[in-house]
Automatic annotation (TrEMBL):
Gene Ontology process terms (BP): cell division
UniProt subunit comment: Homodimer. Forms a membrane-associated complex with FtsX.
InterPro entries from the UniProt entry: AAA+_ATPase, ABC_transporter-like_ATP-bd, ABC_transporter-like_CS, ABC_transpr_LolD-like, Cell_div_FtsE, P-loop_NTPase
Entry keyword annotation includes Membrane: yes
One cellular-component annotation, GO: plasma membrane
Membrane topology term: Peripheral membrane protein
Domain of life: Bacteria
Originating organism: Sulfobacillus benefaciens
Protein purpose: Part of the ABC transporter FtsEX involved in cellular division.
Annotated protein name in UniProt: Cell division ATP-binding protein FtsE
Recorded family membership: Belongs to the ABC transporter superfamily.
Family annotation (SMART domains): AAA (SM00382)
Signal peptide interval: none
Amino acid sequence: MIRLEKVSKRYPNGHYGLVDVSLTIRRGEFLFLVGPSGAGKSSLIRLLYREESASQGEVFVDQFKLSSLRRSQVARLRRQLGVVFQDVKLLPQRTVYQNVAFAMEAVGASTRDIHKRVPQVLELVGLSRSRDNYPHQLSGGEQQRVGIARALVNNPIYIIADEPTGNLDPETARDIMKLFVEINRRGATVIMATHAKDIVNQMQRRVVAIEQGRIVRDEVRGVYGYES
């Protein structure tokens, strides 16, 4: 599981992104992080994959205590995490297949494993027929699917998504959310920061609301609760 114990994050300018946050996320959950812009959602997410470190308190991801990780252990931690961003940042000179394969190459996977796994993931996200296309030939929704495939290809335990539907039209956003639901159904824990009020209200999954760096609401079947 993921566990935060009395975690605070203070930035060099004195601003607190998180204040005394305690949170437990169990394997297999689908959790939405909601709240106004600047509330602390992205700060929390960056702590989980060790892009940043907590100023106080402890963050645990399974057996990893993040405050004491060596550099080699950070790489091991990140193999358990698949991260999906609003800005997908695909490699423009690589095809869909090559963009996804690159994530496996980065962790030292064999050519045999890459040839086996990448087509499986492209089929899951509905991009088998686009495997030889380049990013500029894809729609916004298709690019986001490549980003999701890239996050999935190393069989992570956790999928962490920061506003993955933020740049998409409502219909495409719903299709992308169906994909996340399927990923969760297959066993991955999904943690998603979002402003997508309609999606959160419709899905009725666990909702953790953050305001001014503090958790103010944690509901098993929650709603968005903010004007978006």
